[in-house]
Input
Amino acid sequence: MDQLLSLVICTLLLLKAAEGVTVPMELGVPITYLQSAVANGAVCLDGSPPAYHFDKGFEGGIDNWILHFEGGAWCNNATNCLARADTNRGSSKKMETTLIFSGIFSNNKTFNPDFYNWNRIMVRYCDGSSFTGDVEAVDPATNLHYRGGRIFVAVIEDLLAKGMKNAKNAILSGCSAGGLTTILHCDRFKTLLPSATKVKCVSDAGYFINVKTISGSPYIEQFYNQVVQTHGSAKNLPSSCTSRLSPGLCFFPENVAADITTPIFFVNAAYDSWQIRNILVPDVADPNGTWTNCKRDIIKCSPNQLTTIQGFRTDFLKAISVINNCPSKGAFIDSCYSHCQTGGQETWMSNDSPLVANTTIAKAVGDWYFERRTFHQIDCPYPCNPTCHNS
Output
């Protein structure tokens, strides 16, 4: 299956090359199972060991590290978590043993000029709580382990022992639920690394906002409350938030971001396709499927649906405005209908990557990290940007 997956990816890359889009050919990065973490209970939902993929740095990047947390939504109760435990989002036994690295993970200087020779690690997501859970008891009926918070610490401790203790530069990053992990754990990550290390965070598509569905229900707020309760997440959420709000509300970046002291950069679509499909218009809010075509392809949205989606953008920009006056916080907010843009070469840096202020995501993040310039740009409303890759 791994060989077949690699063949499919290579074929797609060749097809893109045939279309005139320049893309690099990357080799697969093997999986590492963190067996030593099991003794401390830092395990996936099904009790299997956590895992990551590690492409080692070279030349001038051997003391620089990118630690990226994979995404994949959340599970909010025992039933959903039990189903998840039988997938690669809940068990390392189900994971692909090889991943293709590209985008911010590429080891090709042409396509990733600032970070190509860093140590690049993709941490697999198998807990369903954005690495916040920690429940001691294991239900004998389900054998579910809610231990995402322990996995977060175990992985970092393992990498410190493998050289990250000598890090000169380090980035905590993640996509989607992993992007939320980055936001919730950014300051904690800095405390776990040597004080001399230059630490910053990059959240990709992790800025989930608290909005009601088209039917007026607080669906995502209720869902996050259930996630936090099921996984025992409160102890691993930022105390700056839990000291004033209920833990479920502290899963929303708008209630956390302003208090993050470590420099952090937000890459996000103002029309985040996952949020529109699952927060604004979840299936439960659209029982007749009138939004199905629109959710699949924004071009197929009716004028009334586009008005609703423009309203989502307004809500998103209001939610992220809490970072506006902080010089250590950067932002690349495009007007694309997309979700996760740093891990794919086409959206990170290629001949036709999305641009904001005539700048690619790779250039914006690199300039911000190395302090060549600040970058806090918000795109004009859809459909103004012809460089977008709309999903």
